[in-house]
Model the fold of this input.
Amino acid sequence: MNTNGRMSRRTFLKLTGLTSAYFIVDPPLRNLSVAYAFGDHPQEKAAYSITKKIPQVCARACECDCAYNIVVGVDQATGMERALTIEGRPDDPVSRGKYCIKALGFVDGMYNPDRLLVTLKRTNPKRGLNEDPGWVTVKTDDALKEIIEKLKKYRPEQMLFASPGDPYSNRLCRSLGVTRSDQRTECFGTHYYLNCLMITNPPNKYYSSTYTVTHSLWGFDYSKTKYMLWFGFDSFSKTAKAGILNHIAEGKRNGTKIVAFNPVKTPLADGIIDEFYPIKPGTDLALALAMIKIILDGKLYNTDFLQKYSDSAALIDSDSKKHLTDKDG
Done:
């Protein structure tokens, strides 16, 4: 027996083994009230039985609007129904039955105990890791009114609304006077409104013009595109937009050439991208303007295409051959 108060190596190993065994065995057993020596164990039975699948569209995780089914089941113990997971729909022309990693988190997010269900207002103007924001609960209508009153201090041309297209952003813009879904959308007299729905999603023509306050534009046909120019775009190794990626992949199989400008060399630079140029951060606009100048000076544009499929012809004065401007220049 050890009488000097020190633990021997053998005793230490015994205690370590017992502790490890406890942590390994305890989690499965701690919720059991009856031990079953023979027969089927209750935990071997499915906790939920699937009852139905509900067709749904992505909850604005990106601009693709992928379609999928919500798998619903009933808890065998309580009889309560809840969403279990999602599954792709092969008949969807956008996603073609695929979905991204963000979609897998929808169900967990809905049942997350920390999900934000109320409107909060910050009361502490100080910022910092050690500062308490001082969040307080307020009514959503009161929050909108407070924001609107602050926006009224600015002139229409001073405001630009950039939104991810979520229902709350759309609700805010509607409260500011956005009532139309065309290219003259008005927000306090301004039509400067950017929404991810305006970028590229095939069902946008029908979805956004009906249910949101954004413009209705056709999505790009990635699978048949012959040349893509990317500025900082890298959905393959970043945002994983399933509705876009499978079309881009099909385009690559059909011979699409991709040229990318990005300060960061992403995994795509060595994979799918044909030409990669690591420009300095913030120089995208200078590069784009230089490209435009070369195209205009060298007359490398397609005049027939611009006249038939763009509004460029309507922006040029036929007499002076100059760009049309308003009374303020």
Summary: The radius of gyration is 29 Å. The first helix runs from residue 9 to 29.
